[in-house]
Amino acid sequence: MSKRHVIPILYILFLLLPIYWLVAMSFKTTGEILSGFSLFPQTWTFDNYKVIFTDPTWYWGYINSITYVTLNSIISVAVALPAAYAFSRYRFLGDKQLFFWLLTNRMAPAAVFALPFFQLYSAVGLFDTHIAVALAHCLFNIPLAVWILEGFMSGVPKELDETAYVDGYSFPRFFISIFLPAIKAGVGVTGFFCFMFSWVELLLAKTLTAVAAKPIAATMTKTASSAGYELGLLAAAGTLTIIPGAIVIYFVRNYIAKGFALGRV
Amino acid sequence: MKTQNQKAWFFVLPVLILVAFNALIPMMTVVNYSVQETFGNNVFFWQGLDWFQQLLRSDRFHAALGRQFMFTGIILLIEIPLGVIIALSMPRKGFWVPVCLVTMALPMLIPWNVVGAMWNIFTLPDIGLLGYFMNNTLGIDYNMTRSPFAAWATIITMDVWHWTSLVVLLSYAGLVSIPDAYYQAAKIDGASNWAVFRFIQLPKMKQVLTIAILLRFMDSFNIYTEPFVLTGGGPGNSTTLLSIDLVKIALGQFDLGPAAAMSLIYFAITLLVSWLFYTLMTKDDAK
Asked: Does domain A55-262 have CATH number 1.10.3720.10?
């Protein structure tokens, strides 16, 4: 091990400390948490997790979140694919302006949009549905998806397209059977980022739901305020929110590093 | 060379419709509110540009905006160099690469309110790991709810913890795309580490760093949930960043007009800074 590896190791330790504390808390009893400081749980308890897995308001929170996040990732990648292709291959009237306009939608503070979003989705009758949150998250995920995919597609030489057309491929057939496999790393990375940003966002998700599609994060905030000081339960719920993301990133770990290498601004 | 093809618009259409639905309609609602006054019951009065004028002269807005720029400035100054340094010292090949990448990406995958709650638990003076260590082992009086300095230090540490990995991932992606031949050539020329960094690695990272800085600027400038959960904007107003103040006005006091005007100014500032940066950084590419 060389000297310079000290830096990433220290950094990872710094990252893991608060996570360790959250996980440790989740195995402590409320009594132990409040009675004082202990580095490790003195009496291990799984009660906090038991509550989450048996109480429908808790576990439905997870199911709701995963549902709208998955929907959002699929929608974002699906519509971003042709758009990114257009940006990477063609020049058309207003292309640069459109690209920058798309990016600007990442800049609007979600806090700005909370109330108008509520009114908009109530007006079209989608309030408190998974699809409402999935569509709302498109606001910041589609621009990102187009941006990342465009970078990947620009890395694929144009000759690939031309050869395929000469060989008599139709556009849809070329796109699905030749072009998509060529950029599958990009699709994976894009899906990952859409999943990530939709999973971690709370403000819009909370504003657009009440009961039927309420995200896990909203259940947590409610518990934090209503059930007094149930830190253990909160910690257990928090620990469980890390898991889906960790699974997703495990699958795309090899693509991530390659991901942005081909990207361009 | 790209071909001119106006039919490309059809490819862009689904994106355009979806984003426009989500962006333009709410934006028009905000514009609508920003020029009116309401006392509830859906009764509105024309107010013109009064809200904008009031806001631009208000000390409260100036203070929140100042805190916002300070926050964004500090985290950019820490996260960008730190991210580059970590990316440079990471292994390039082998078993540890995916391990590093996966653990480093973990903080980014935690919902933002959980991040806030987690740091709250972590820093509680008597029962949090960091809080206990600071107060009882080091003997430093560290209490976020009392000291504005502690609150600031904590939200900045939290953001560094949360987002430095994004800079690391992006810079690392830029680094691994450099062909080995470049390094071999540098070695033959006897280039120093600094020269390799300055003339090979940094230029290769320019594009990804532009993305990183832009993303970090936009997201940190709009940050709301994490500091809100952690400090609630306190103690006093010391960590009331722009969006926390905005939500206080919009949903706390239900002053829709002023809140809408504030949203628009807020958005305009973000847009302006991002556009300036984007134009500056991509200027050379166009030539």
From this structure: yes
